[in-house]
Automatic annotation (TrEMBL):
Its main location: cytoplasm. InterPro entries: 3-OHacyl-CoA_DH, 3-OHacyl-CoA_DH_CS, 3-OHacyl-CoA_DH_NAD-bd, 3HC_DH_C, 6-PGluconate_DH-like_C_sf, 6PGD_dom2, NAD(P)-bd_dom_sf. This is L-gulonate 3-dehydrogenase. The keyword Cytoplasm applies. Gene3D superfamilies: N-(1-d-carboxylethyl)-l-norvaline Dehydrogenase, domain 2, NAD(P)-binding Rossmann-like Domain. The lineage of its organism: Eukaryota, Metazoa, Chordata, Craniata, Vertebrata. Belongs to the 3-hydroxyacyl-CoA dehydrogenase family. The keyword Oxidoreductase applies. Keywords: Cytoplasm, NAD, Oxidoreductase, Phosphoprotein. The record marks H123 as: Important for catalytic activity.
Amino acid sequence: MVFISGGYNVKLYDNQPGQAAKAITEIRKQLDELEEAHMLRGQLKASQQHALLSSHDDLAQALEGAFFVQECVFEQLEVKQSVFRDIECLVGEDVILSSSTSCLVPSNVFSKVQNRSRCLVSHPVNPPYYVKLVELVPHPETAAVVMDTARTFMTKVGQVPVCLRKEIDGFALNRVQAAIIAESWRLVQDGIISVQDIDLVMSEGLGMRYAFIGPMETMHLNAPDGLVDYMKRYGEGIRRVLASFGPVPEFSGESAKSVVKEMYELIPNDGQHLSARIARRDQLLMSLAKLKEEH
């Protein structure tokens, strides 16, 4: 949906016949809902964006005329490598090859590609229509012009791209997220706080600030004379707290049972409850995205 918003023709391909057509039906439905909610991106109406979509069961046909290819298969390295090996045989040298992987580094994803200078990871955040960030992660051989082109392209379609200067396991977003997850899990597992309350620490505390400004600006604004002053005041305390962090949790087994039990009591682990909470999440993110647009 994101690329359509920029007025680009978007071709969907799936190696399972009929799956791409099913996906387009769902996308068109979502576009209509977004238009009704006054959240549709771009200058085109939903019906006009519908016309930019096409589905294909033949890869060569789907790639015809492409200048940017975004792969979105599941997180299995061998599958992604195979997909890009097939794609490279069907497109010109100037076509950018991009993966949506969230945890595989570009040097592994594109290891079977001959021309790696046009390869990068474009990692979106779920759901990408409301959470606009996309991480652009270069392969060690990626040309600077490819990164610049990808950044311009993502900006044009309404995303907010950030460029990593080199690859690293987890990229930026998931490394920060992993740190939050680990300490939140430890605090619950060690009996310091409940699942419900640690979520409130983020949703009613840190998240209120981080919805509009990040941790670096937060520090800069939270001391009279900026970042250096903040570190003079709080740096020693931050170091002391960091030194007290425990080992990385296992996230499974006996030690995890109490955390999982609490979570399931709050939101039962069945399709009905999970679907309702996902719908609520998306509705809240839509409202927040609208608020951010206004500001």
